[in-house]
What we know:
By secondary structure, the protein is α+β, with helices and mostly antiparallel strands. Helix content is 38%, strand content 24%. It is built from six helices and eight strands. A hairpin with a 5-residue loop joins β3 (30-34) and β4 (40-44).
Amino acid sequence: MFLGQFEHSVDEKGRITVPFRYRGQLAEGLVVTKSIEACLLLYPLDAWHEFRQKIGTLLMSDPNARAFRRDVFPSAFDVVPDKQGRFILPQHLRQYANIDKQAVIIGLDDHCEIWNPDSWRQWQQENDSNPDARTERFASLNI
């Protein structure tokens, strides 16, 4: 389970360090790809395989399904972190998420997101400043 948020530097080679508490879950490998917002999705291999299976059930005749596949798979990058827990974020993914020298990794239970710190703080501020919208959004989820 991935919980919390961690800010990490990105070195000149594009390497980022996996938060220490996540390393055991990601030691076998991970997949990074674009998210819907301007951030990145980070999946441990087992969760990626589940996600991939769900995508595999989408109909090829559905143009939205084809577009979704074209968005997710070509940008995906699989990697095994080194002994220090570092891995390279490819340039095309760093550009997509506007990640330069710093990044925030947030835990979302079965996967993580990687954000530009300013974008993440802006998202949090917008979300936190409107409790009525949050209440309405959460109520629609029936939880």
